[in-house]
Every structure is written in structure tokens, then in C-alpha cells.
Design a protein that fits this description.
It is built from seven helices and six strands, in the order αβαβαβαβααββα. It folds into two domains: about 130 residues, NAD(P)-binding Rossmann-like Domain (Rossmann fold); about 60 residues, no CATH class. It is α/β, with parallel strands linked by helices and about 220 residues long. Bound molecules: NADP nicotinamide-adenine-dinucleotide phosphate.
Length: about 220
């Protein structure tokens, strides 16, 4: 999918709090998944979504840590998930599908960054690629039946204004500006990151690596 980058003037920015984003939204009856919902940004996302009335399913690899962190939060449940392990991803998805109907919000939050040494996932791929990308690719594929009934097919939905604008890179709750390849700015998105051919190559590699084929 090729989508033009354009700001949506959401009114939100890097200083916007989760509570401000959620204000006025009632998600009662909706089901969400947050991977890595036991810490950091994921935990704040879980608290905020649960506070709007959504049922939030947390996927995390350390059950004891997750259960103690999530204790006391209403509308939250836990299913074990290790994104480095394809069998664990399959088990998470199978358990979710057996317990729930539609999935309305899928927050692929879990991730690793700058590991101190080379590590590999159970597939044999470098750990950051394996967890951050391939694990989520497989998870999304397995959960696809539950996502089919969702009201939108947007993958990066931070605002209702994004409806019909899937496949874009978001920044500060808005769409990132396209900047020149040699731009010294730390903001914005560069051409290679939204190149359709690169995206297709990554998609094909990911299908081969995980065995997931989208219909
Ligand atoms: N914070 C930032 O400035 C920043 C900037 C850019 C991108 N991000 C990305 O935003 C996301 C959240 O960031 P954060 O700062 O909140 O990170 P964080 O506190 O380190 O949380 C990362 C989460 O990912 C989970 N995780 C790691 N490996 C996993 C695996 N194999 N299976 C399942 N879960 C796994 C961790 O679980 P454990 O608790 O078991 O380790 C933890 O819950 C990450 O993907 C990060 O790369 C963050």
C-alpha cells in the first residue's frame, strides 16, 4: 500500500498525556491486546485503555512479574507470550481466540533495543529483528481472524482521524513529515523508510521466516 505522508493536525503532541488522549472515550465492550504490557509505555497503555472500560489482554514473557505488576487493575487479564519463540506466539493467539471474539485494538508494543551482545531468537534470527518484527508479524497473522471484524483496517490508529489512511509512519500522534535523506533533523521520516519496494521485500521475507501467509 502506498500512502501519502501528510499531517492530520490531531492537536496532540509529545507532551500530550495518556489521560488527555483517552478523555471522553468509552471503550466498554471493546477488547484490546497490549504486548509487553507489564512495563514502561505498555503498562501505561494498559492502565489507560482499561480505564476507558476496554478489556485489555496483556501478553508478556514473565508471568510472575506481569501478574504482580497488573494486580489491582480492573478489566485486565494475562496470557503468556514470548515473541522470540514461535510456539509461544502460536499458543498466545490460540488461547486468545478460544476466549475472545473480535479484537478491536492490537498494540504491538513489546520490544528490545540495543542489546549488549548478539543474541538470537528461537527461529535463529537476530533477537531485535526476531522479537520486535517477526514475533509481531506472526502474532498479527495468527490473530487475523479476530481482527477481521474490526471497524477499521488501520495498523497505526492513534486517532479516529486516521481512518482510511493506513500504512503511514506516525510521529507525536500525527503523521511524520517526509524529510530529505541527508536531513540532520532527528524528526520526520526519510524516503527509504516508506519505500514501497522495501516494504514489499520485508513483507515477503517475513512471510518466509514465519510461515504466515495473509489471505
Ligand atoms: N522509550 C522510548 O524512548 C522508546 C523509543 C522508541 C521506541 N520505543 C519502543 O517502544 C516500546 C516500549 O518501550 P518502553 O520504553 O516502554 O520499553 P520497556 O519498558 O523496556 O518495555 C519493553 C517490553 O517489551 C517486553 N519484551 C521484551 N522482549 C520480549 C519478548 N521476547 N516477548 C514478549 N515481550 C517482550 C518486555 O518484557 P520484560 O518486562 O519481560 O522484559 C517489556 O514488557 C518498545 O518496543 C521500544 O523499543 C521506545
Amino acid at each position: 500500500m502506498e500512502t501519502t505522508q501528510q499531517p492530520i493536525h490531531s492537536g496532540f503532541n509529545s507532551k500530550t498525556t495518556a489521560a488527555e488522549l483517552a478523555a471522553g472515550h468509552d471503550l466498554t465492550g471493546k477488547t484490546a491486546i497490549v504486548t509487553g504490557g507489564n512495563s514502561g509505555i505498555g503498562y501505561e497503555t494498559v492502565k489507560t485503555l482499561a480505564g476507558t472500560g476496554a478489556h485489555v489482554v496483556v501478553g508478556a514473557r514473565d508471568a510472575d512479574k506481569a501478574k504482580s505488576r497488573l494486580a489491582g487493575l480492573k478489566n485486565v487479564s494475562f496470557i503468556p507470550l514470548d515473541l522470540a519463540d514461535p510456539a509461544s506466539v502460536d499458543a498466545f493467539a490460540a488461547r486468545f481466540l478460544s476466549l475472545h471474539g473480535d479484537l478491536h485494538l492490537l498494540i504491538n508494543n513489546a520490544g528490545l533495543f540495543r542489546l549488549p551482545q548478539m543474541q538470537k531468537d528461537r527461529r535463529g534470527y537476530e533477537m531485535q529483528l526476531g522479537v520486535n518484527h517477526l514475533g509481531h508479524f506472526q502474532l498479527n497473522g495468527r490473530l487475523w481472524p479476530a481482527l477481521q471484524g474490526a471497524a477499521t483496517s488501520i495498523w497505526c490508529a492513534l486517532s479516529g482521524q486516521l481512518n482510511q489512511m493506513g500504512g503511514v509512519y506516525c510521529e507525536d500522534c500525527d503523521i511524520a513529515d517526509l524529510v530529505p535523506d541527508d536531513s540532520p533533523a532527528v524528526r520526520g521520516v526519510r524516503r527509504h523508510a516508506i519505500d514501497p519496494e522495501n516494504a514489499l521485500a520485508l513483507w515477503k521475507f517475513s512471510e518466509a521466516a514465519t510461515g504466515i501467509q495473509w489471505p
